[in-house]
Structures are given as C-alpha cells and as structure tokens.
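Task card 7
Instruction: Convert sequence to structure tokens.
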Amino acid sequence: MRLRYAIYTLALGVLAVHFVLTLIYVSPPNPIKTLTNLPQKYVGRFFYQDWGLFAPNPISMDIRVLVSCLADGYDPTPPLDINRGFLERRYLNGYDRVNRVAANYAYSRITLYRSQMPYTKLCTQTPDHPDCNVFRFTDEERKNAAEEGLRRVASAFCADISKAKSIKYEKAHLWIILSEVPRWSKRHTEGRKESVLDLGVVKLEESRAFGIWRGYE
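Output:
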C-alpha cells in the first residue's frame, strides 16, 4: 500500500512539473523563461507546441528544398526538388504529408521561433544584454534542429535514387530556394524574387528506399 501511494505521489509530482514547465514555455517573456533554458530543453525538445492560432505575419513566399545526391567516383545528381509533384501525384495516397515535412523543416530553418521574436530588436540594439546569450543559443539550436530534419529527409530521398540507379549515395548537397511572392497590388508589375540558402554538403544516414520519390531519377 505504501509503495502504491509513493508511486502515485511521484507520478503527480512529475505531472505537476510537466505542466509548470509547459506554462512557463508558452508564457510571454519573463525572467524565469529567459534566464533558465530548462523549459526550452524539455518542452521545446520533447513536447514542442505553438499556441499561436493566428500568425501575425502570414507566409509570403514559396519554399522548395533541392537535393543533389553524391557518391565517390560518380557524377552528382542534378539538384532535384524533393517537393515537386506531391500535390499532383501523391495527394490521394497521403504522401503530401512528406511534402509538408520537408517544407516545414525548411521554414523552421529561416524563421525565428515566436518566443524569439521579442528579442530581435533588443539584441540588435543591445547585443551585450544578458538575454541575448539565450537568444543566440536558442537560435543556433533552431537552425541545427531544422538542418538535421532536412538531412534525414534527404537520406530517404537519396535512398530512393540509390535504388533506382544502383549507386550508393553517401552524401548530399542541400539548398533551400525561397520564392517571394509580390504584393497583390504589384502582382502585374513585379515578378517573383528568388533567393538561395546553401546548406552545404551533409553525410547521409542509412535509410531504406521507401519508394516515395519513384520517378525523380
């Protein structure tokens, strides 16, 4: 009986800590949130959530992810758009979810977390402010997490290409292509403005060929 009560008490304690850290994580900037990184390490890593129902800055650009698969002794594949054709060819089979995975990682790579936005002006004007150390640390974590996600997607993509070409690709070159859409009032006078973010060459992890990207080769 005592063991049962001890387990119940421990479970309630863990649950209480979880909800407290979640509350701090979703709260506006405050000293506890900015001076300690525990909510970000715990909730941000294992239970990420964003309660912003209406984005103040809607997405104004199209995002594409290009991958070139590399293998020693072979020519690299041309940069291939891994988002191409999902809505047309894969929607009924549910594979457009893969399209969103790659696009979401790319968007996370170029966009600050909502919790970081209040600090952009502060850290631009006062880069030595103590809160800016946390801002720079979380910003580096954000970029690394997004690039790791893109690396895993590229691993699955190149596994499909490897199977089609019978070439074992071990590395990949990644790019994010941003195509900015002009304002509605200038839609007839201005074209899209494209910019390229080169993420460099990454080492691929072992992944089986899922057949999602059949026909890309």
